[in-house]
Amino acid sequence: MQKTMSESSTAREALVEQEKLLLRESIRLISRGLEPEKAVREILHLLSELLGLNRGRLVMRDGTTGGLAIRVAYGLTRAEIRRGRYAPGEGITGRVMQTGETQIVQDIDADPNYLARAVERSTLPHETVSFIALPVRVDRRIEGVLGVHRLRSRQRALGADLEVLRTVAELIGQIYKVRQLVDKRTAELAEENRSLKAALQQRAPGKNNWGIIGESPQLLAALDQLEQVAPTDATVLLLGESGTGKELFARALHLQSPRRDRPFVKVNCAAIPETLFEAELFGHEKGAFTSANQQRIGRFEQADGGTLFLDEIGDLPLPVQVKLLRVLQERVIERLGGRGEIPVDVRVVAATHQDMMALVRAGRFRLDLYYRLNVIPVRLPSLRERPGDIKLLVRYFVSQLNQRHQRNVLITPAALSSLVSHPWPGNIRQLYNVVERIVLLSRSDEIDAATVDLALLTEARGLPPEALPGGPSAGGDAALPGIRSYQPVAGDERALIAAELARQGGNKSRTARALNLTLRQLNYRVEVLDIAVPSRRKNNV
Ligand SMILES: Nc1ncnc2c1ncn2[C@@H]1O[C@H](COP(=O)(O)OP(=O)(O)OP(=O)(O)O)[C@@H](O)[C@H]1O
């Protein structure tokens, strides 16, 4: 009797030793940073070798089918692994996945819920076989089910086996958690790496593309054309919707041309009153008209030797078109009130978002001037036509804005995908605005998808009410044109107003306009919501 007791205590000690060994080895496996599947397979192997808990398998969700499938197993054939597929809630495994409760099947032959799907009964020992299935949690979420076969006639108590299995299930959960963290961090670092590379490429000497970002075939075709015509003096007509980069291209053309050290002068034809056009373009002598107190050099003369960028050329009034045509043909200008012709050496780059032929047909643009300007037409694609470039643009803008606002934010891959999948109806300027809101709105250095969604929402609010879901066009009271409807103060407006004020460099009038508020309404909100107004700066976008 004495001997039997000491024999059984030796056996118990041996089992405890094996348990310890299993845990030590499992921890060592985890610290080796193996792929989760490799580490889990080794642990299942140890469970079988050391503790006799056989045919261990880890079942997890199958990303493609949505059902459950064996992800890792030890002691199962390939065919058995393939068979181990369960619908949600199906069998013992499905139930553990659904309820998160451990299931113990004392005798697999006696429990109708035990499906024997992966391993056929005939391949198992004849004696009574049990099956234990436990949930594997990652951050409290049930991500998998650990299952093992156990012979009932064992020395070890079921309670002892259960305890070890619980610890093992927890270790497996940790393995997947570490993997998720590593994957997340790796993706972030990869993203950071790409941003830094993009920023470096922007600055690399000899690889200057003048801040024109994009790899889409349409954009590359436009850039090719630009490079071809840059060294010549040919007149270029840039065609594209608003905010597609016409000014950026015009500047790039100038910087690539032999005129790069001479002035680049921009004239926005849509912003000049008709009566002032001639004086603006060609200048005037002192006394040329009542308010001409002194001589003024016009834009053509200012651009002498350089490039004159005529933006929104479609808005040029007809009488001025005649004069422009003459300058382009004869390369001389005449100041208002002047007595002679002044030769000018100017390369003209014009741009428009309008259909020039339609303007010609409507009698609003001279055909001869159109031909003069349209020597080299370059069409710039809209953002809609090149969704593949959104990622590159976002990274570039984030790095630009980090510098401008002295921030160091990093856009997470999820946030980037959110921006890429947004159906950008508008232009690059709109994308820039949203990215700027994101950089300003984000509280931490990591921009997540939620911040992106908020920025997209606030951008939508800056648009006229019709653009909002459920806005006037959706059935509400339409605001009268030109009259801003009353908008009550809402708590979440604070961030929106602060961001817009920062974006507008502290300019309250522009901020009010962008937010569709009157100046008074804005001031009231600034006061009520206690918003600090940034000191004014020049906004160049
Ligand atoms: N390919 C691009 N890469 C990087 N930034 C771009 C690109 N295209 C446009 N942008 C940026 O988008 C903004 C709008 O561009 P830009 O002013 O050149 O457009 P535009 O076509 O002249 O617009 P508009 O017709 O409204 O005057 C600018 O801040 C510009 O730097």
From TrEMBL:
Sigma-54 factor interaction domain: residues covered: 212-440
Superkingdom, natural source: Bacteria
UniProt KW keywords: ATP-binding, DNA-binding, Nucleotide-binding, Transcription, Transcription regulation
PROSITE patterns assigned: SIGMA54_INTERACT_1 (PS00675), SIGMA54_INTERACT_2 (PS00676), SIGMA54_INTERACT_3 (PS00688), SIGMA54_INTERACT_4 (PS50045)
Record-given protein name: GAF domain-containing protein
Organism: Aromatoleum toluvorans
Lineage: Bacteria, Pseudomonadati, Pseudomonadota, Betaproteobacteria, Rhodocyclales
